[in-house]
Write a structure and sequence with these properties.
Number of domains: 2
InterPro entries: Homeodomain-like_sf (IPR009057), HTH_RpiR (IPR000281), RpiR-like (IPR047640), RpiR-like_SIS (IPR035472), SIS_dom (IPR001347), SIS_dom_sf (IPR046348), WH-like_DNA-bd_sf (IPR036388)
Helix content: 55-70%
Protein name: N-acetylmannosamine kinase
Strand content: 5-15%
Number of strands: 5
Order of helices and strands: HHHHHHHHHEHEHEHEEHH
CATH class of the largest domain: Alpha Beta
Strand order of the largest sheet: 2-1-3-4-5
CATH topology of the largest domain: Rossmann fold
Shape: elongated
CATH superfamily of the largest domain: Glucose-6-phosphate isomerase like protein, domain 1
Number of helices: 14
Oligomer: single chain
Keywords: DNA-binding, Kinase, Transcription, Transcription regulation, Transferase
GO biological process, one term: carbohydrate derivative metabolic process
Radius of gyration: 23 Å
Organism: Hydrogeniiclostridium mannosilyticum
Structural class: alpha/beta
């Protein structure tokens, strides 16, 4: 059962609803996980009312239109869908369409929305804080762990004091962060369903005076509250697997921005690395004329 502002709005207007609007309200309360990804026409057809009735219902309870109501439902369930519910919703959304094309188009839309919603001011301020940090702590638990590993790999090429925090247990996290202070920056990465360990680590970093950068999906994310710099990247909250294309693009941009701030130093580092890689044969040399076997 829902328990948020949307529920309150529905209950406040219940006695004034028409028969059709009551059907919509009941369906939303009982099947909010499905409504989050239904069009207005689909919802109307499901409960047996017209699309215009659904739109009027949204405005009746205080939303600008159905898309705004739908967004409210999506925000509400962002951290509540079980894996089984995600699978059911994903199957409904794809329907009879080609799966490969559907996932590509979904990721394209996620990146587009991230571009529209990301604060450039927060982004560049976060990059500046990272570039001037004493020590850098990077933390990402569960499905966000690969993002943290990717970010730390490149930042370790640019900075000396980069710590990729291992998230096996809460005790281990705090042991690794025991020396964090006001000169440091802690980058926390988490997407629905949010990692409790990541949230606690971010709260701890904030209390210790460190600058906190949160890479997450929403202003209502639990990582947002302790963050000094909030970098938002959309993720698909109903997919069977977490779509992390937008967070990865954001991290790519962050790495490039920081590298450009330290361009001369970075050039020297990579020039030295290229010499080492060649000397020790780190990478396989590929002859352009060589045929694949």
């Amino acid at each position: 059962m829902m328990n948020n502002l949307l529920t309150v709005r529905i209950q406040e207007h219940m006695e004034h609803f028409s028969k059709g609007q009551r059907l919509i309200a009941k369906y939303i309360e009982e099947h909010y996980d499905k409504v989050a990804f239904m069009t207005a026409s689909k919802l109307g057809a499901t409960v047996g009312v017209s699309e215009s009735t659904v739109v009027r219902f949204a405005t009746e309870i205080g939303y600008a239109g159905y898309p705004e109501l739908q967004k409210a439902v999506q925000e509400m369930i962002r951290n509540k869908l079980t894996s089984v519910q995600r699978m059911d919703v994903t199957a409904q959304r794809i329907g009879g369409n080609d799966i490969l094309d559907s996932i590509f188009n979904q990721d394209i839309d996620i990146i587009r929305r991230t571009m529209e919603e990301t604060s450039h001011e927060n982004f560049y301020q976060a990059a500046e804080a990272i570039a001037s940090a004493g020590k850098l702590f990077i933390l990402g638990a569960r499905s966000s762990s690969p993002l943290a590993t990717f970010l730390s790999y490149y930042l370790k090429l640019l900075f000396e004091n980069v710590i990729l925090v291992q998230c096996t247990s809460e005790a281990e996290i705090f042991e690794q962060m025991i020396r964090v202070d006001e000169h440091d920056v802690v980058i926390g990465i988490s997407f629905p369903r949010y990692s409790r360990k990541a949230v606690k680590a971010m709260d701890y970093a904030h209390k210790m005076g460190a600058k906190v950068v949160a890479i997450t999906d929403s202003t209502v994310s639990p990582l947002a509250q302790p963050a000094d710099y909030l970098l938002l990247a959309r993720s698909d909250i109903a997919s069977i697997v977490d779509s992390l294309c937008a967070p990865l693009s954001l991290i790519n941009a962050l790495i490039v921005t920081i590298a450009m701030k330290k361009k001369e130093e970075v050039a020297q580092v990579f020039d030295h690395l290229e010499t080492i890689w060649d000397e020790y044969g780190v990478y396989e040399k590929v002859d352009g004329d060589r045929k694949n076997v």
